Amino acid sequence: MKKDVKFQTRAIHYGYDAKQFHGSLNPPIYMTSTFAFESVKQGAMAFEGENSHYIYSRLGTPSQALLEQRIANLEGAEAALATASGMGAITSAFWSLIEPGDEIIADTTLYGCTFSFLEHGLKKFGVRITYCDLTDSDNLIKLISAKTKIVYGETPANPNMRLIDIQALAKITKDTDAKLIIDNTYCTPYLQRPIELGADLVVHSATKYLGGHGDLIAGFVIGDSETLETIRYYGLKDMTGSVISAMDIALILRGLKTLHVRMDRHCSNAMKVANFLNDHPQVSKVYFPGLPDFEYYALAKKQMLKAGGMIAFEVDGSREVGENFVNHLQMILCAVSLGDTETLIQHPASMTHSTYSDEELVKHLISPSLLRLSVGLEDVDDIIDDLDQALNSVSRGMKIISNTAA
Ligand code: 4LM
Predict the structure, then answer these.
(1) Is residue 55 in some structural domain?
(2) What angle is formed at CA 112 by the lines to CA 250 and CA 87, rounded to 5 degrees?
């Protein structure tokens, strides 16, 4: 393939030559747990890393290698590791890089299970977890020390859409022992490439936009070859065993082929939905990187290609009214996860972020009345109509209650 082929073309072709597989348009699925050796010597050499023979699917398969090369290429990195889930990617990476006595500095807001892994998991093993508002990179300068081994953040953050400046943070971690790890799930490499901005590692829940159809659970760690080798042969092989399945490899390879087309539509639909919500009298607050009055609008313009497909908002600033609104939706599904073709809505405080106590939700800037919308690929007018009728239903209900009270 030519060197300068574009993202869209690489997402479809990179690393695969149909001629080598009987012309098969799609790569074979290696439905196997193990690989036979021609001799004990060949097996022994494979175990010593002296040949490239496949050994056992916990360590990788040919189609997994293709998927890993392709996603690494799209992120602008040397190497990648596919895992059985986003949490498998995060835990495999952290277990590989951290020892008792080390410190992790994490942004204030994290996906619920990532927070739980740090707060209820790693902390028990003598790892110090420090939360820091990384939206102001100066805060990191004050906190980082020789003990800091990982600086970790999501941007935009799940669920409140705070953005952190990857380039500014990378400048600070560059000359330290700390690795800057960015969870790029919300953006995908189509919208944002943290490695090119200076991050050391990227993690993904491939369950979301990369798969794109809500039919699999998977993850990635992406970065330099040496670190990735440690994460594969220690973090994944021995510590988590979080191995991706053969079918999920095939589904993500398929998902990647349409990533750019889907992301463009997610983004344009979300922009229209965000404007609708922003103009609606019943909606008290909208958090969306594409709105000019959004706190992180300028940063979004700097490091994201487009504003993405995720919106957070509050209805009348009230948890009860918000819940009532969700219950009135007819087409939009109340479900966790995101990045699917279907528009999904959920209430983080009682669902994805219920791993935080009520006090922790406040401390970590997650409003109890926040709703999270993953804008899908339906006709945008139908999405807006459904939101509109549900908003009107709760507003009618409130008028009846206030009239009755009077
Ligand atoms: C959700 N999220 O938010 P697996 N990183 C981020 C995520 O949003 C998630 C993971 C990692 C949701 C799941 C129910 C930013 C997950 C973890 O679910 O292990 O693939 O990814 O709705």
Answers:
(1) no
(2) 30
